[in-house]
Design goal:
single chain; 182 residues; mainly beta; Thrombin, subunit H; 47% strand
């Protein structure tokens, strides 16, 4: 679900548990969905960020699952009902990323879904956990190109700033000119 409040846009996910009819006045009724209370609400902000295309010799992988980073299934829980997909990061910015993943993931996800993302940078022991929203998805043969926008929680949590700082550091390091051997 998304809604705007003043100049900010918010997004959250919840489960539909039914519907109910409400009286809005004389001879006016309306039916509305009843949702579970959201576990987290995220503020969505569009900012311009430098985008870095990840070359084939750089290994940057992303694993993702439905429901946000706190909904990450434990290894023993990963199954058809709680799948975790993974793919190669094609490009990355401080605001989001593009992932090339199996088209199987695209069958389960819809534009607007909130996912948790675990980014892994090469053979380094550096990783970031973030919440993101699927913004677009397009088929590429047996694969899918999926665009995710990072979400800023309404109340920052431990690790959020560190994860975004790590991503920005990786982008800056990859954009520096490499020395040429003479």
């Amino acid at each position: 679900m998304t809604f705007s409040l003043w100049h900010r846009k918010y997004v959250f996910s919840g489960e539909v548990v039914g519907s109910e009819t409400y009286n809005l006045g004389p001879a006016t009724t309306c039916t509305a969905l009843k949702l579970t209370a959201p576990a987290a609400m995220h503020r969505v902000e569009r900012r311009l960020h430098a985008r870095h295309d990840v070359s084939h010799d750089e290994v940057t992988r992303a694993s993702f699952w439905l429901g946000g980073r706190d909904a990450r299934p434990q290894e023993s829980e990963v199954n058809v009902e709680a799948p975790v997909w993974s793919g190669r990061v094609m490009n990355l910015s401080g605001g989001g990323l593009h992932v090339r993943a199996s088209f199987e993931a695209a069958k389960y996800l819809e534009v607007g879904d909130i996912v948790g993302i675990h980014l892994m940078f090469g053979s380094e022991d550096q990783a970031a956990f973030l919440d993101a929203q699927l913004r677009h998805c397009q088929r590429d043969n047996e694969m899918a190109l999926m665009g995710f926008q990072f979400l800023e929680p309404d109340e920052p949590r431990k690790g959020d700033a560190r994860a975004l700082r790590l991503i920005r550091e990786k982008i800056r390091a990859r954009q520096k000119p490499q020395p040429v051997a003479v």
